[in-house]
Amino acid sequence: MPERTTEQKAPAFNPEIKKAIEAFKNENSPQNLNAVLNELVKSPLLAPAIFDLQGAPAPKPGPDGRVQLPKNTRISLVMLNSKEGKPYYLAFSDWDAVHEWQKKTTQSRQIIMIRFDDFANMLQKNQEASGLIVNPGENGLRLESPLILSVKKQKDAMAKAREAATIHPGDKVTIVEPTVLADELLNPICDVLAQAPGVGSAYLQIMIVNETRKCYLLVLDGPKDEKLFATVAQAARPYLTGRTPRMDLTITTSVSPLGQQGMRGSEPFYRKGIGRIQEEDDE
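Request: output the structure for the sequence above.
Response:
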């Protein structure tokens, strides 16, 4: 159940949401839309709601400002109809956006904290809802239900892949050189790394876990950068998903124990200032 919060005790919200929405509205491009979605999936959001306490007395806030709702409380999120008459859930990136909306409505509503995944789950259950409006108004953005459900599906698949690639204590890990370095995989990765000045070189191996699970191991000689990791993974995804059977990609740095093992006795396929290093056939 979503948890009610108060303005004084509200968590730190993500200012990049508004920036990403503004950039998308200035230039409607897939890249800018992806930037909006990437910020939304990792951020707490606010939503107006109606509480039905089922006859129970109204609870009082605790010392931390949070309210523990009675067990059987029913929560209904407020919806807004578009000009076409289609109902959408409402979401706000921060309290300023809530206040702007409250100035334009005479109805008093409770505000709860909720996340992108919660909206996706509700849209999946409520077929009549058309999607989500973030920061309703001239600076807001309307997202349709199929897009939100698609993002949730991709997010779940990536989480499942990360879990599958996780190495647990006691796992047997074997690292071997790939027989062929496919251009379709490495060239897009090199294009990304060329824009990452902190990466000196990159190595690609095949990692076998417990003799059953196989994936690519990419070792980057540079500082850990989750944003860069995500960009590299996105660039490699078309090749990985097009394989039969599919192979996932695990990314690490040269300072990690796994990275040290992956670099040992191997030659890089990428070097800073050079780019892709082509293998030469032995004569």
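The chain is about 35% helix and 25% strand.
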